[in-house]
Amino acid sequence: MDVTRTRSLRLAAAGVAAALSIAALAACSPGPAGAGDAKTDAGVLTVAASAAVTTWDPVASFSTEALYMGNIYEPLLWKNAEGSSQEFTPAIAKSWTTSDDGLTWTFDIRKGVTFHDGEKLDADAVVKSIQAAQERAGASFIWTPLESIEATDDATVVMHLKYSAPMDLVAASTYGAWIVSPKALAASASDDKYFEKGVDAGTGPYTLDSYDPGSKVVLKAYDDYWNEDEAPTYGIVDISITPDAVTAQQMLTAKEVDFATTVPLENIDDVAAQMDGKVRTANSPFNYVGYFNTLRPPLDDPKVRQALSYAVPYQDLIDVGVQGYGTQAHGPVPKGIFPYSEDVPQYSYDLDKAEALLAGAGHPDGFTLKLTYASENPAEARFVPLIKDSFAKIGVNVEVTAELFNQQWEKAKSDPANAQDIFIVYYWPTYSDAGSDNLNSLFHSSEKPFFNLSYWKNADYDALIDKAGTLTGSDRSAAQADYVKAMGMLYDQAPGLYLFDAQAVTVVPNALKIAPFNENYPFTTFFAPIEPAA
């Protein structure tokens, strides 16, 4: 299988604190007229959002502007949250089929849809959008399986693949899959600043009304939106860009805004009480892993790595790192994202077993390890000392260093022999397939390390991952079974510490209805719900 694993590290540094604090609002609709003290009168929703805008180009977009993009643009399909009655919600494609071998995917394109610039959407517009994504998207690698794409008539798009792949999941990606007006694509091809002028060319429920860089984004309901059942809830969404979580909390509790996407986790309960609201939790795609440097003794011995895995106080890490809003990981695949399975074994906190394994491996007196974590990640700063203290109880001294993520990442890639012994990583898949992403990116063998910073190489694991990747589009249950076997190998060989999956945490103000958070779009705030609020 030809898999590209050069995944961009979007937000690995700058956006991480926001992602840890409070998840974006998954969807909202107005509460009863006059309910509470929220200012949602006259069809205006005010929001304090942590999301910055790195680009308004929907093709190049690969960062926190996803919060806005999902309201302006649409993909072929939306991937629904775990537990939904249907796996997908049709968007630009009203239906789709795949051949038995998973090599041909046919999408029936919705008629009567217009782009915000007045152009009509048809199959050719879809083809041009995906070809642009293949060529220059920030997440262009998601289209690696695509060999060719064609419009066989005005309403039919056919994709031909190099190997069986889950194009439904790819087509529902939050990055690299937006359908864009051909007129705007042509204009941006000759002017790379075209979109930065405040132009938008989507089909979504909102248009970009105005943008004050670093300060404010105003979205306006699109009058000709095709989906009458999911028409924009608000006429205007007025968003203040507020990177500081404490400031956002103050704006919310002072009723300067109706909703805040970022509130410090330690204050969640107090904020909910002040707002007469509720705290809601859900799956998120955010997963914490601790790489072992498997090239250097004593971590080249699986028994040593297993011992250290038993010496991690997992629940304490969750309680201290994310205020209890998390669950112990079943490997590096986050809960709710394919191919997550609770059949994958977990290590328990067992210091006696850890000591016995170390002694059996010839290290009864312990040793010293160097651990690094991202200095810009507040959760890591809170939970890493717990790892140090626990390892000390089995005679392992840990020297901890906080570094900017990109600095430690570059060092680990360029000089494995002298890199850290343990590297704490915060990771999430680009789209809703953590088999082709997490399991590949984090632990698949490679000649030159990019993101497999354990440097672990295992031909049997690689074969399972590669095989599963070619089955996901044609036989997902078979792919799942192979991925579970591969994750069992990760447990047994322990090239990393599988710490925890962070949860999405939302404060729901009393005057707003909030649909369930969608872990497939963690950086996107939908102001018109994909599914009705419960």
UniProtKB/TrEMBL annotation:
Q: Which InterPro entries match?
A: Peptide/Ni-bd (IPR030678), SBP_5 (IPR039424), SBP_5_dom (IPR000914)
Q: Which domain of life does this protein belong to?
A: Bacteria
Can you quote a single GO CC term? periplasmic space
Question: One biological process GO term for this chain?
Answer: peptide transport
The molecular function terms in GO held by this entry are: peptide transmembrane transporter activity
Q: Name one Pfam family in it.
A: SBP_bac_5
Which keywords appear in this protein's UniProt record, sorted alphabetically? Signal, Transport
Q: Where is the signal peptide?
A: 1-26
Q: Does the keyword Transport apply?
A: yes
Domain (Solute-binding protein family) ranges = 87-446
Enumerate the PANTHER family for this protein. Answer: OLIGOPEPTIDE-BINDING PROTEIN APPA (PTHR30290:SF9), PERIPLASMIC BINDING COMPONENT OF ABC TRANSPORTER (PTHR30290)
Q: Give the family this protein belongs to, as stated in its UniProt record.
A: Belongs to the bacterial solute-binding protein 5 family.
Per its record, how is this protein called by name? ABC transporter substrate-binding protein
Organism annotation: Microbacterium bovistercoris
The organism that produces this protein has a lineage beginning with: Bacteria, Bacillati, Actinomycetota, Actinomycetes, Micrococcales
